[in-house]
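Quick entry between incubations.
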Amino acid sequence: MTSTATPTQTLPDAELAHYNPKSESAGTKRAKSTVFHLVALALTAVVLYPGLWMIASAFKPNAEIGGSNTSLWSNNFSFDNFVTAMDGIGGVSTLQFFTNSLILAIGAVVGTILSASVSAYAFARIKFPGRSIFFGMMIATLLLPFHVVIIPQYIVFQQLGLVDTYVPLLIGKFLAADAFFVFLMVQFMRNLPAELDEAARIDGAGHVRIFTSIMLPLMKPALISTSIFSFIWSWNDFLGPLLYLNTPDKYPLPLALRLFVDQTQSSDYGAMIAMSVLALLPVLIFFLVFQRYIVEGVSTQGLKG
Amino acid sequence: MTQSPTLSRRSSSSASPLPRKSRQRGADARAGYTFLLPWLLGFIALTVGPMISSLYLSFTNYNLFEPPKWIGLDNYTTLFQDERFLQSVGVTVSYVVFGTPLKLAAALAVAMLLNSKRRGQGFYRSAFYAPSLIGASVSIAIVWKAMFGDAGPVDQGLSFFGINLGGWVGNPAMTMPMFILLTVWQFGAPMVIFLAGLKQIPADLYEAASMDGAGPVRKFFNITWPMLSPVIFFNLLMETIHAFQIFASAYIISNGEGGPAGSTLFYTLYLYLRGFSDFRMGYASAMAWLLVIVVGIITLIFFRTSKSWVHYSGDAK
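Done. Structure below.
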């Protein structure tokens, strides 16, 4: 694979002295381009296969999914699995699970945007004693396996009678507990020219004014990346809801899926996969719409998927 | 850090520099802590407090219903005689040790393939990234389980080529390769980061090396690897720490049991089962703290050894 990576490698020695990338003949260029696309397309097929298999299976009758079916095509495509999947599980409709997931995800986005932007402003733009120590601690929490906090957190929420509510799942979002987003916004704000706030200060603006009317509008790209990722992370979160939610009518989709797997015991494969597709649908739509933002966000901020 | 030289010049040239400056400083301190309040509250209530509390719990016997009973180091000593615990360590370590380097190697290889001015690069980049976004979800775990089911599509596809592995999901020998494939499939996120790093390497370095007659292997080891080393370091650290914490896929694929024969009993899954199925909160806290210590030591080793192989462009100049 590496041999196709750098196209300049295969130049004959004689040409090296006068090396000029543009001097390659049109024929070699086309050949290299063809090889590149063949390799890349083959890889695309492998990478996308599980997703395509999932979508195809969701439309297939049960008998064709299990067992030997590697094919993506069927002559019996139908929406039957989706009809079954929409019925939901445990007496709760799939629409309800969708609504629950949506409430949690929107809550996560709102909370994260509010708390992370305010905290990031303090780290990036205000000088106060202890700032660098707190900043270091914030970075340290990025590396901290969060399993070390789930047990005491659970005990506290249980004593407060908040188990089986959305409070434990959302409170962290409103308290900037996802350090990654704080970090992302700090990095972004540090790249904004300092003269902006200096000028505003001379005009008598306080931090609240500077934050709301100068920083926030300029931070739009960072706010958008944060919204997209906190939505998707919340949408896919499994451990949090698994720990805290007990009644099915409060379940978000990932927990509903688990319930579905448990109760049908793979007897209705088609519906199970159709429901998996439904659960991923918003993420896939997000990805198609915000593709640029997402991939750029990852490449510049090192955000994890 | 953000204080610009213009500001200090300006304030010192004003009529009464000292009182104004200190008043400003006091106001800044107040504003700083006010703005920091959400994070600070969360940090104390959701991180520091729980960490101290779980450290205490790790020295106790606690089942959520009776008050914690102090038992000293018993949880820790019991852990090392607990066969299921040792098994979960083995499972997780082999996942981290094999899965992470393979994933990063795939990410780097594909990033190098894509690092050229060719049409369609953006499309491939997005297509390869997509699995990273959904790979840890319950939906994908269900799909993986179905695809790798005994006599499922993957098995059948391989047997077409005469390869008979005896199933994946139900075969203790094959569950780990199945999970490693799941993580390698998500090579897109580190790949995108590698790609951004590769674009930073000046093209004339490669041109100069070509003129000196360097082949692809030498160029890789003498230019690509050192120039990319900060990015490799970042990816290696983040992916390693991440790999220790795999949970949803393990839970779904093994029905929350870690089977068959404990071959998918990942550390976090065992922690969850101990804490929230058996309600042995003290024991689970001890497991959580061991994980923190191990991750801390690994991070420390990474940073210590990084001096010998990670080159920041500032060093050379």
